[in-house]
Amino acid sequence: MSMIEFHNVQKYYGDYHALRNINLTIEAGETVVLIGPSGSGKSTLIRTVNGLERIQEGQLIVNGQDLANRKTDMNRIRKNVGMVFQHFNLYANKTILENIMLSPRIVLKRDEEENKKLAMSLLDRVGLADQAQKMPAQLSGGQQQRIAIARSLAMRPKALLFDEPTSALDPEMIDDVLNVMKDIARDSSMTMLVVTHEMGFAREVANRVIFMADGQILEDDSKETFFDGQPSNERARQFLGKIITH
């Protein structure tokens, strides 16, 4: 069953053609990694999936809903599609526990006891149950990013989008966040679309690796073909060579 479908999608910023004729299908439960040079359209693509960016042409189907249709309820889409950004966007004036409980309380009207129980189980899952009563400023960047992931999971989404979730972290913080993401990827029911430069993560858990440049998908391969075989696109081969070398 398809979770996300792009059909001839075009996205413009004024005269700038940010996404060019995107055709892509992501099945439910797949982990798909998007890579490519800066400015290639990766973040724009991922932001269209939950309506943070609107497309100008084509069709984008997410969980059975057509995002190109202006009548589509975007709040309904976002209930089922969580997003984790480069920066954590936690509420600075609320405890870690409250950050996780807030959206399910307001949006889903979840029972308070059930909400707290789930929030604590998610904190335990990301290794931060002992930080529940702290404020975000008391945590490291890596810890805050793990909290942001737990907050997204609290909505029990069908899909999670990650937009370079480790790029703002100090190197020693990255592994803890990636380990949480790997744990989620092993959950066969969760669909993940991840923009990242972490090739080790892609090698380990991705079902597919998509290479983008100039707003286009130039390569869409299994991780085995992309990393251990040979991408058919010359630009993808050059990019991979630079990544592996450095």
Question: What does it look like?
Answer:
This protein is of the alpha/beta class. The chain has a single domain, classed as P-loop containing nucleotide triphosphate hydrolases (Rossmann fold), CATH 3.40.50.300. 37% of the residues lie in helices and 26% in strands. It contains 9 helices and 10 strands. It has helices at 42-48, 74-80, 96-106, 112-125, 141-153, 171-185, 199-205, 223-228, 234-245, and strands spanning 2-13, 16-27, 31-35, 57-62, 65-66, 81-84, 159-163, 191-195, 208-213, 216-222. The protein has a 6-stranded mixed beta sheet, with helices on both faces. Strand 9 and strand 10 (216-222) form a beta hairpin. The longest helix is centred in the C-terminal third of the chain and has 15 residues, at 171-185. The model has no long low-confidence stretch (mean pLDDT 93). Belongs to the ABC transporter superfamily. Keywords: ATP-binding, Nucleotide-binding, Transport. Residues 4-239 form the ABC transporter domain. GO terms for molecular function: ABC-type amino acid transporter activity; ATP binding; ATP hydrolysis activity. This is ABC transporter domain-containing protein.
